[in-house]
Each structure stands twice: as C-alpha cells, then as structure tokens.
C-alpha cells in the first residue's frame, strides 16, 4: 500500500495500529471508538464550517455569539480532547518499541512545527500572504501548540503533574481574567462587565501582540492567552487515554468515562455562574463542559464498538474521515477558500463569489433558506468524504 509521510500529518498522533497499512490490519486491535469519534468530529467540523448561508443556517449549526454554547462550539474542543487521548496510546507504544524520550521529543517538535505551518499557510490561501495582515493563529496552530505542550508533559511528568497542570490552567486563567486589571480599561466586574467582548485581558493582549493579524479585528478566538485553558482540554484527553489503557475491564472503563463526563458537565454548568461558558475565550467552565461531553460521547462509542462490538457498514463513513483527518480538514479548507476567492461578474450587479453563485443558483432554489443551507453543508461534507474515500480505498494515509 502507498503511504505518504512527509508534509502532511494526522491531526492527532497515530497509534501503533494506525501505522500499519489498511490491508494488514483493517480493524484488529484498533480502538474503534476513537476512530469513529475522530471521524465524526471531522465531519462535524466540515459541516459547521461550510454553511450555504450562515445568516439563515439553523442555530445549532452556528457558533454562540458570545457567552453560552451550541453544538457547533463542541467540535474544536473535541479535537483537542482526541489529541490527548491519542497521545497516551502513541507514546506508550513507541516507548515499548524501544524509542527514547529524546527521540519522541524531536518527533513532537517536528510534527508541531509542520502542523503550525500548515495552519499559517491555510490562513493565507490562495493569495492573501501579506505580512501586514496575515493571520498567524488558528485552529491547526492551537492544536499544534497544545499537542507540543501536552506531549512534553507526557514525556517528563506523570498523572499528578498532568492533574496539577489542568487545575493550574483552569484556576489560573480564571484568576487572571477575573482579577487582573486590563491596562487602560480597568478591573473586570468593577469598571466593565466580566468577559466584555473587547475589554478583557485576552483581547487586550491579542491587540498588543498581533494587531492587524486578528481573526475578528480586535480579538482572536485562537489567541495567545486562551491557549492556556486549551492545554487543559488536551491533558484531560491524555488522562482519558491512560484510563482506557489501564487493566480495568471494558465495562468499568465505559462506565467510568460516562460518570466522569457527567461530573465535568455539571461542574462546567456550576462554574458558569462565576466564569461564563465562552468558546471564543475558551473559559475554564467551557473546558469542563466540553471535556465532559467528549467523555460521554467517547464512552458511548467505546461501549457500542469496543465492548459490544456492534460494528458494521454504518461505521465506515466515520472511519474514512477518522483515518485521514488532517487531509480531510486541509482539503475542505482549501476548497472553501477557493470558492470564496473566485469571483465572477454576472450580467448585472457586483461580482459574486463562486460559492455564492453555486448556493443561490442551485441550493437556494431547492428548499427554505435554513434547509437549503443545510443541504449545501451536507453536500460539501459528502464531496470531502468522497475525496477521503479514494485515499482510504488506496491505502493512502497522510501523516507525519
């Protein structure tokens, strides 16, 4: 089977079983739950990132405007959670095969740098590579940073260190955002509301360091300070991976993940009173809520696929995405950027993007606005899946 290793990487580290060609071990000892969960997350990200018309899309398929959450807000943190789960399996197998910590560290740095570079490349694709406006942060960049930090902790720390880091990230971020004065603006809850969209410390720091390069002009949802609690998300995934690697019986593992997930969701909702759930600031309550929901989803997948072995053709669509997650994401983003970039002048009116023309001339005529937008999104997911299916059938898995 043909496998391409350079330039492209799986969004998450690859487990021992995953490094074998599809024909050698199509399922075998693979953790099928993780494959399916990863694939569903990729599909969800492509779905919510490519609405036909975001203004009319169903509210669950749009991000919360500020505080609060929708199902769309779960996709990215689920990604980071999966990064952590996979780290636990990947590093364990590599160390057992005789790899050293320094060898793994070198691999981690290379993987992180390439993933970060791919994210920066996508931000400018196809022709927006202007140094004065080029956005440096983004989804893949945050994944790369959290992956490297989490990997270092996995290599040179233990469970107590991971738990202490999680607690420190969540508590420390709340203290900083709640009590540290924002230069020139005042103290949160005294001089302005807590988590005011532009008058908060995270937004202020983004403007100081990256003004002109921010996704939302005055702030960035993947900015500098909010990366701190995002590290906690991936580390919770690491703890989950260690739980799954333990010698406990399978039913106990599934039940444990579900119980911890329920507790985390309850904690997130409880702390929402003092530190609102907010995806764009990646608040500590948001970390607890999303990690809890990820645990519950993974526990269901694990119980269905790896405990009860209820498998079949219904898993294949998700596994196809799950086997080539970075390729699927990059393909979806590049096509989306091209559709938005190509503009065509019609007989009358201003030039429209190719995406707008396709949507208005085809999908908008098929159904109500919300349903037309949904049909467009589903069609886009299907096109991306077909591209990944070709790679899957040929045994091509793009990774570092």
Structural class: mainly alpha
Number of domains: 1
Profile the largest sheet.
2 strands, antiparallel
- The largest beta-sheet arranges its strands as 1-2
Please, what is the average pLDDT? Answer: 89
Count of discrete alpha- or pi-helical segments spanning 4 or more residues: 13
Order of helices and strands: HHHHHHHHHHHEEHH
Rg over C-alpha atoms, rounded to the nearest angstrom = 21 Å
What multimeric state do the chains show? single chain
Q: Can you tell me the overall shape? A: globular
Give the N-terminus to C-terminus distance in angstroms: 17 Å
| pLDDT < 50 stretches | 1-28
Give structural notes.
By secondary structure, this protein is an all-alpha fold. The protein has one domain. The chain is built from 13 helices and two strands, in the order H-H-H-H-H-H-H-H-H-H-H-E-E-H-H. It has a two-stranded antiparallel ribbon with strand order 1-2. Strand 1 (343-344) and strand 2 (352-353) form a beta hairpin. Helix 8 (250-271) runs antiparallel to helix 9. The protein starts with 31 loop residues before the first helix and ends in a 7-residue tail after the last helix.
